[in-house]
Amino acid sequence: MRRVAVTRPARFLPAAAEYLRSKGLEAVPVPMMEMVPRNDGGVDAFVERLSAWQVDVVVLTSQNGLRFLLERGDKSLIELLNKVEVLAIGPKTKKALEERGIKPKSMPSTYSSEGIVKEFSFPGKRVEVLRSDHGNPVLIKGLEDGGAIVTETILYDIVPLNGKEQEGFVREALSGRIDAFTFTSAMTAKSLLLKAESMGVLNELKMAINAKKVAVIGNPTAEFLKNSGIRVDVVPDRFTFEDMIDALARVL
After folding, report:
1. What pLDDT is stored for residue 211 in this prediction?
2. What does the UniProt keyword field contain (predicted)?
3. Which of 129, 158, 187 is the last residue of a domain?
4. For residue range 154-202, what is the model confidence (pLDDT) as tens digits?
5. Residues 22 and 71 reside in one and the same domain
6. Measured in whole angstroms, how far is the alpha carbon of residue 175 from the centre of its chain?
7. Residues 139/113, Cβ–Cβ less than 8 Å
8. Total domains present in the chain
9. What SS3 state is found at 122?
10. What's the CATH code of the domain at 60?
């Protein structure tokens, strides 16, 4: 059975492993980062603007962001969100919104910041972008270039992990016993390379990865890896984990 590295946050690893099994693949899971809620008053300020009818459009770029947002608010937040236009970046975020009683009015056909900018513009409207501290700068600039008045709120920080579990994963990668590597964000890839660098085996790890197949979600992730000297074999047209694995399975 082909062994596929999955470098997602811990809460997503069980479902990822299950999906790989359904495709006849074995997961080699390791969390390379964790998500930590931001407590700088930004969410409270956003809710105040929303309550004061100072918001026209809310853009949510992940289901994780929605989770952190709702953990900080009360039930009235759902009612307030349903009074404005909510744009979900992709189907998983859209589903998460609907499950919590929020009705997203829009979603791009390409599930990315670039897709939002290409397909939507909000001239003169007050747009709130809710996301992590590693959001694609293309989104803010693109919306502003389209005439929107944009306010960005950081809901959570992405923090690299650097412990024994990650060290063990690097050694497993160096052994050659992993057939493919997957990266769902540039940060997961960066965290892995930083860990290898701290162990003094960065070049060896790059060689080990380049000897196998590499699949990623999103052009920013692909660009980061290419600029780091790692070849990318698979970037699915739709930016979901399942689409990435489906595309990878076809080339393994």
Report:
1. 98
2. Lyase
3. 158
4. 999 999 999 999 999 999 999 999 999 999 999 999 999 999 999 999 9
5. no
6. 28
7. yes
8. 2
9. coil
10. 3.40.50.10090
